[in-house]
UniProtKB/TrEMBL annotation:
Pfam families: HipA_2 (PF20613). This is HipA-like kinase domain-containing protein. InterPro entries: HipA_2. Residues 12-234 form the HipA-like kinase domain.
Amino acid sequence: MIQVTQYVKPLDGWSRPHLMLCDDGNFYVIKLLSNPQGVKVLVNEFICSQLAKQLNLPIPEGKILFISKRVINSHPTLKSVLQEGPHFGSRFIPSGIHQPTCLDLARCTNIEQAADMIVFDYWLDNNDRHVWRPAEQNLIVTGGSEPKIWMIDQANVFNGPAWSIESLIKKMNIFNAYWGTLYQRFVPFIDGPNPFRNSVSKFQSLTKGELFNVVFNIPAEWNVSEQELTILVNYMEHRRKVMYYMIQSVHVHFPIWHVHYLKHGGIG
């Protein structure tokens, strides 16, 4: 397990993340076991980072990171926040644009993955990325000659980090058609007769066994029960199978797709 070697500074965010340097030489944005939103923030982030590896999603690489007593003792003022054990960290992306303009998005070499982002959020019921915030978004754009769009902050998948067995069962068949200014900005880049066909096919290629492998690698120290993990898999598997149905509700926001949809009766 990668070890934290140096505390750097606190960062903004509801989960009060921190920037730290680790023994692999990389900086990570770390969400702590003691974060105010609860340990399931770490669970949600870990699951999304592992799915990203399999689906080639633009999510920063995520790792389980260990904070030792040595690091804690070297920062006495943080002893009430830091605790020894495994936490979750996302690779820090320096110089990211948190309020990208339409021009910034147009320059991104992976802008076509906006379709993947929308399908991903609908699949896992991520209830806040569609919102365009005055301060920042749940995405960043890197600069340079080949700018890229990155999805950050996956804490609100499963309709938020307060999920339970009961809430997952209840939400399994509820497909909220979140739509907002951020998604609307993606429309010109991905609209077409069937803009989500490839994304849906990619997600539907996952197997239930692969989903089990993801969730059952969650550290025991995060205290997620086997029953909760099983329900998570069943939730993802069920919603994965009905993605075509889930995504059809947003066709009205896509001029080309809308015409095609009315003419041909769907996206399948």
